[in-house]
Every structure is written in C-alpha cells, then in structure tokens.
C-alpha cells in the first residue's frame, strides 16, 4: 500500500463584496470592493468586522455622525456632499470615494488585507492612501503593529538602516538631513505596516514624514531578513 500525504490547505475562503451607491446627477460617487470571509470561525467574524469598521472610518466625513454599517456610512458621505452642494452650489464638485481591498499575504498563522482608497471632497486634489489590517488566524484576533514583533526596538533599528540606504541618507547625518520631516528628527515606524509576498511593507502616508509633493514613502523588507524580529509564525 502506498500512502500519499497532502498538506492541508488552511487558507481562508473569501468572496468579493461590492458596494456602490445610486448613480445620479446630484449623487456622490462611491465604489467599494473588498474581500469578505465566508467561514464560520471566530477569525472570519473578526476579519469582516475589522473591514467594516475600517471602511466606516474612511467614509465618515463627520465624526459626530453615528454610522454602524457600510451602508449608513455611505449615506452619511452622500448627505454631507448634498449639504455642501446646497450651501455652495457654484463651488461644489462631485465627491468621490473608492475603496479596494485584497489579501496580500496569508500563511497558517498570519493574514494581511490591504485597503487602497481614494477620497475627493473638494479642493485642489483628492487624497489617496493605504491601510493594512493584520490578523492572527490561530488566535482569532486583529494585530496591532506592536504585536507583529518579538523585538520592535531592534526591528526599528534595522528599518532605519534600510530606510537610510533606500533614501540615500548618510549614517553620519540626522534622519531629516535630506528633507524628511520625522518629528523631533528621530526615525520611527509608520502607522501602516503589513505583510506582502515581497516582504514586510512600511507605508508612510503623504504628510506623515514628507511633503505632499513627495507622495507616500514605501519601504519593503524581505521576510527572510527580519524573521528573528517577528512574532513566531509558520510560513
């Protein structure tokens, strides 16, 4: 008898979840396409809840508005646009919100979802950015940035070294010597950190450490170089 062993596929199952508001002359334009976890495990609920809350946070123009669903957040966005348009009919241009999500990394333990979004609510230009959501599948929880690392201070030292090399900042000079705007002239990690197939990505938003004209600042470090700094997880 010959026994053939097969590695169990522990990847989660997703389906595309699409939201789009009514198309009309006086409507804001809202398009959302994100993955939705289909299983009945705790982690599936945690993922879907985190995605919903993140989308609501992106769409809420007024923090005082009580939005507890994606639909109500879309209604809030549309309502704010209508109020502005009615108040300044000659100046108001159509508002726009586009949110796209995808799974950028998954192994037996870790799952990362990246949200790319663009908002235009008037003015000279819109605003685009990225948000990473990281999850521990085994524990059924969303992870904060500090929970990704076994030694975050040591990783920060490595990240600064990589950042200086990429941006051509001499080690003998301050981190802001070439025009960056790190607070107190001290390197720090961005708010947005997530796993991708290429490695761990550090995503500094516009204005976070540089001017708007410089755009987002992105640093990707291969996982093989940082394994010892990360929480133990199976690849």
UniProtKB/TrEMBL annotation:
Pfam families per UniProt: DUF3298, PdaC
Q: Can you give the residue ranges of the Deacetylase PdaC domain?
A: 25-127
Ranges for domain DUF3298 come to 158-222
Recorded protein name is DUF3298 and DUF4163 domain-containing protein
| Phylogenetic placement of the source organism | Bacteria, Pseudomonadati, Bacteroidota, Flavobacteriia, Flavobacteriales
């Amino acid at each position: 008898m010959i026994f053939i062993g097969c590695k169990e596929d522990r990847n989660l199952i997703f389906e595309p979840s699409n939201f789009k508001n009514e198309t009309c002359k006086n409507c804001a334009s809202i398009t959302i396409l994100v993955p939705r976890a289909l299983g009945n495990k705790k982690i599936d609920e945690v993922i879907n809840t985190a995605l919903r809350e993140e989308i609501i946070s992106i769409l809420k123009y007024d923090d005082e508005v009580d939005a507890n669903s994606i639909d109500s957040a879309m209604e809030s966005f549309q309502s704010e646009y209508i109020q502005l348009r009615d108040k300044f009919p000659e100046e108001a241009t159509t508002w726009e919100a586009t949110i796209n999500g995808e799974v950028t990394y998954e192994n037996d333990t870790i799952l990362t979802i990246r949200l790319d979004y663009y908002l235009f609510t008037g003015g000279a230009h819109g605003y685009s950015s990225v948000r990473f959501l990281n999850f521990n599948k085994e524990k059924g929880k969303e992870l904060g940035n500090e929970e990704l690392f076994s030694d975050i201070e040591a990783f920060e030292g490595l990240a600064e070294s990589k950042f200086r090399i990429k941006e051509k900042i001499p080690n003998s000079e301050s981190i802001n010597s070439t025009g960056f705007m790190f607070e107190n002239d001290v390197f720090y990690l961005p708010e947005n950190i997530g796993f991708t197939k290429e490695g761990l990505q550090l995503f500094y938003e516009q204005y976070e450490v540089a001017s708007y004209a410089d755009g987002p600042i992105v640093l990707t470090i291969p996982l093989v170089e940082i394994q010892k700094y990360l929480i133990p997880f199976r690849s």
